[in-house]
Amino acid sequence: MSDPLVFMMGNFAAQFPTDRLYAKNHMWAQRQEQRNCFRCGFSAYAVRLLQDVYFLDWTVDEGTTLLPKQSIGEIESKKAESSLYTPFSGFLTTFNPKLLKDPSYINVSPYADGWLFEIEGEGVELLSPPAYLEHLQAVWDITQRTIKGQLNE
Predict the structure, then answer these.
(1) Which has the least CB within 10 A, 38, 39, 76, 101?
(2) Domains along the chain with CATH numbers
(3) Which residues of the chain fall short of a pLDDT of 50?
(4) How far is CA 47 from CA 37, 75, 96, 152, in A?
(5) Which DSSP helix (H) or strand (E) runs through 76?
């Protein structure tokens, strides 16, 4: 695997492996052995914004056909409570059983043990690593203002 790409979030360097694709909702998708099956998880950017995930709840079941940007669950962390949305349409095959017992794997291993689910689909909405980095650069100013509570200034 080649060196990861890096996006600087202030003093924090968020790394992005180049062996997977990314979604604008800050999830990664890595193709599995099956041609159209992807394992998905949060990018380092999302994990940094969330900080200390401690609760994860799925509102759909394995075996569900999903639409793009469909709400599939809820996540709570030190910094935020948020709904979770699919990165692309497909058939939900499995959830990560480790996360069902302990969602903190998301904090310590977002690209390995902290993966969220697997979905069969085409993944046509996904971005290459360089395109995802460009997306982050385009939204970074708004993200910083939102974090600081200054969106309406």
Answers:
(1) 101
(2) 24-126 (2.40.50.100)
(3) 150-151, 153
(4) 23, 11, 17, 25
(5) strand 71-77
User: Which residues lie below 8 Å from residue 78, measured CB to CB, with a gap of 6+?
Assistant: 50, 51, 52, 54
What residue type is 118 in one-letter code? E
Lookup: tokens for 94:
């499995």
**For the chain, how long is the longest CA-to-CA vector?**
48
**Helix count and strand count (H, E) for the chain:** 4, 11
Angstrom distance (rounded) from CA 146 to CA 152: 9
CB contact at 8 A, 45 and 14: yes
